[in-house]
């Protein structure tokens, strides 16, 4: 964690560091800090990005601005740390182009091999500004002080996962060393730590960056069970207490499992709510930290800003850390959309781009919580009851937990009272809905997909018209159909139709170029012999053409277009209302009548004296469950369009069963008349694609 071994803290830098408010951080930089990766990883597992808190068995806890002030000695009150990343000459008054300004401030420009876009290698800073020469003038000392501050910010507070580069975004700040102390470096460092822990909560992220010495020191101060032994010397800032800590070199896997189980069994008495109130801390405390302008912001529910990084200081969920009683918290603020912003994808002036959230920091004093401080801070009884139902309290497997899952609420929680938080106006949620919006556009015109073939198929079907007898083709197999239709011309639509269902005619549902029959439904594929529908529907009943074989007792099923297309055709009246059509259909029926009166073969079902084109009725003794029964089914010697049967049937409808009779016996009885099996057609898919088959 100590990345500035080659940068010596010269006494001549101290006045500039004190003006910048970074002197205490520089003292930490002069010490060794080693990170216990196993311990930090266990606590990162407990981090909840939506609330910015660690979830424990006893409740929630987190790192606040108070911890930043005590552990690192950084100022909390001041201007937000924001601006732009590289386009200084555009957004900043008196700014220069990035590398021109760099040369003016440092007197030298790094070679291209030491630069990666807008980041300079740390090794170059260490080699060039490692030690200030003796007898240097004031301008030279300022250059070396600027380089030291650049390295201090880029490695100790705002380090990225590379760990060996420093971004030049700090040029506008080091250009005015006298004004650096007016910025809130503590809030910016906490915002960056929040963002880094929220990122590593993603299962695809395995590296953690940020001010990790703050995280580890916070764990040691708040959780005595994880505190290393032998570190009882206090100094300022408080994180310097653990400067000589060397973590165990044993395998991390068993230690992670052990510490995870320890955290699952932690009680509230094993967590120190207020560690900074001890006399040992007050003896080394720097008086600047206790200034009212800094202390009041410890309890402020406001935004934390570090350029494009916006986080939320949710201290209303951890009131016991400030001496209060924790009530049942309100719903956490959803800022998932802001968590996706990190400054990449184009430079901009962030105070204007994220103006709303920068304004919250400007109004930070108006969102300070006011509550009663008690002698025994902790969660209330109402909070613990709610926490049992909604909190993420355990991470270990069930066999290892044992009794803590059923631990009773302590009596002290009832004695503390309910606790309360004053009503405050809070900003609206800004959830990240980009992924939801992308999924909603899949398969639509907004997704920029090529659906031109679908439009062409629909237009081609409308232009053909239902009267031509043309069957709409399947979209996947008929994209080349338009070329074939153009070859036939507008006059050849009747002769170029699909083949008959029976396979014997080259005309699709046409006799002499005209339609006949009635019904409603969809069309069918030519390969479904005997299955399909005509222009009126599923069961287009008619008579065969001259070149088709005769089939006794079986209605003809001829595929065609849809019912609405048929009614909307301009040729409806000329085709079906002319004397020529009536004469031809009468002659055809007279010619086919002798064939229909021939004796039926044993392999063929007897024809039914039922007119399927007649409206359905439901008499009292109806034995058909669906659709009703045509009235002609109860009349002897009824005629249909297919002709009369060989021997008219005389029957009596079955009697209605009495209420005490068993319904199952009625259903099992043999019906008096069996209706002919209807041809099965493909189901409609529900999306409209069946219209193009």
TrEMBL record:
Pfam family name, one: PMD
All copies of domain Aminotransferase-like plant mobile, residue ranges: 21-388
Bias-annotated ranges (Low complexity): 496-505
GO BP annotation list: meristem maintenance
Composition bias, Gly residues: 510-522
Record field: compositional bias (Basic residues): 436-446, 468-478
Residues covered by region (Disordered): 412-447, 460-554, 590-619, 635-693
Domain of life where this protein originates: Eukaryota
Annotated InterPro entries: AminoTfrase-like_pln_mobile, MAIN-like
Biased composition (Basic and acidic residues): 423-435, 479-491
PANTHER family for this protein: PROTEIN MAIN-LIKE 2 (PTHR46033), PROTEIN MAINTENANCE OF MERISTEMS-LIKE (PTHR46033:SF8)
Protein name, UniProt field: Aminotransferase-like plant mobile domain-containing protein
Species this protein is from: Arachis hypogaea (Peanut)
Phylogenetic classification of the source organism: Eukaryota, Viridiplantae, Streptophyta, Embryophyta, Tracheophyta
């Amino acid at each position: 964690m100590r990345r500035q071994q080659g940068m010596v803290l010269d006494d001549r830098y101290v006045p500039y560091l004190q003006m910048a408010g970074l002197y205490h951080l520089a003292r930490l930089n002069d010490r060794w800090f080693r990170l216990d990766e196993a311990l930090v990883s266990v606590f990162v597992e407990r981090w909840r990005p939506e609330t910015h808190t660690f979830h424990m068995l006893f409740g929630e806890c987190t790192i606040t601005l108070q911890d930043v002030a005590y552990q690192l000695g950084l100022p909390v009150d001041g201007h937000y740390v924001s601006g732009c990343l590289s386009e200084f000459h555009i957004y900043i008054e008196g700014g220069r182009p990035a590398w021109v300004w760099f040369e003016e401030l440092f007197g030298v420009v790094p070679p291209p091999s030491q630069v990666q876009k807008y980041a300079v290698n740390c090794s170059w800073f260490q080699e060039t500004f490692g030690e200030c020469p003796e007898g240097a003038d004031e301008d030279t000392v300022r250059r070396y002080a600027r380089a030291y501050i650049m390295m201090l910010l880029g490695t100790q507070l705002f380090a990225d996962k590379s760990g060996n580069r420093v971004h030049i975004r700090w040029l506008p700040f080091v250009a005015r060393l006298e004004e650096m102390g007016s910025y809130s470096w503590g809030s910016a460092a906490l915002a960056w730590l929040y963002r880094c822990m929220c990122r590593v909560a993603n299962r695809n992220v395995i590296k953690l960056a940020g001010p990790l010495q703050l995280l580890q020191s916070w764990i040691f101060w708040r959780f005595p069970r994880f505190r290393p032994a032998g570190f009882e010397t206090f100094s300022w800032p408080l994180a310097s207490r653990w400067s000589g800590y060397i973590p165990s070199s044993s395998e991390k896997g068993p230690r992670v499992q052990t510490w995870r189980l320890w955290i699952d069994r932690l009680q509230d008495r094993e967590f120190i709510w207020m560690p900074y109130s001890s006399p040992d801390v007050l003896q080394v405390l720097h008086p600047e930290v206790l200034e009212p302008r800094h202390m009041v912001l410890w309890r402020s529910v406001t935004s934390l800003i570090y350029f494009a990084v916006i986080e939320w200081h949710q201290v209303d969920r951890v009131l016991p850390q400030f001496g209060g009683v924790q009530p049942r918290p309100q719903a956490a603020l959803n800022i998932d959309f802001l968590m996706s912003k990190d400054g990449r994808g184009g430079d901009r002036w962030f105070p204007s781009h994220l103006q709303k959230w920068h304004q919250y920091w400007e109004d930070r004093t108006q969102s300070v919580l006011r509550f009663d401080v008690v002698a025994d801070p902790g969660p209330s009884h109402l909070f613990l009851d709610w926490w049992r139902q909604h909190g993420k309290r355990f991470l270990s497997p069930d066999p290892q937990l044992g009794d803590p899952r059923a631990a009773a609420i302590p009596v002290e929680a009832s004695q503390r009272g309910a606790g309360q938080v004053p009503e405050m106006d809070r900003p609206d949620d800004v959830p990240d809905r980009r992924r939801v919006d992308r999924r909603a556009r899949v398969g639509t015109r907004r997704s920029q997909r090529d659906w031109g073939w679908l439009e062409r198929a629909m237009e081609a079907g409308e232009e053909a018209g239902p009267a031509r007898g043309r069957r709409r083709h399947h979209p996947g197999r008929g994209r080349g159909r338009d070329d074939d239709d153009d070859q036939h011309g507008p006059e050849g639509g009747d002769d170029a139709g699909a083949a008959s269902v029976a396979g014997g005619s080259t005309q699709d549902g046409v006799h002499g170029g005209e339609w006949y029959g009635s019904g409603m439904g969809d069309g069918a594929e030519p390969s479904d012999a005997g299955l399909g529908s005509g222009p009126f529907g599923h069961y287009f009943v008619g008579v065969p053409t001259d070149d088709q074989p005769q089939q006794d007792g079986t209605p003809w099923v001829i595929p065609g277009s849809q019912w609405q297309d048929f009614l909307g055709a301009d040729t409806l009246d000329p085709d079906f209302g002319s004397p020529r059509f009536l004469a031809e259909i009468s002659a055809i029926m007279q010619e086919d009548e002798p064939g229909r009166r021939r004796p039926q073969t044993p392999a063929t079902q007897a024809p039914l004296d039922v007119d399927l084109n007649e409206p359905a009725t439901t008499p009292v003794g109806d034995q058909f469950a669906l659709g009703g029964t045509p009235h002609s089914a109860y009349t002897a010697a009824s005629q249909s369009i297919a002709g009369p049967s060989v021997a008219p049937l005389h029957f009596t409808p079955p009697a209605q069963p009495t209420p005490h009779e068993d319904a199952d016996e009625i259903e099992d009885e043999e019906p008096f008349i069996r209706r002919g099996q209807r041809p099965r057609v493909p189901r409609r898919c529900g999306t409209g694609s069946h219209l193009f088959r």
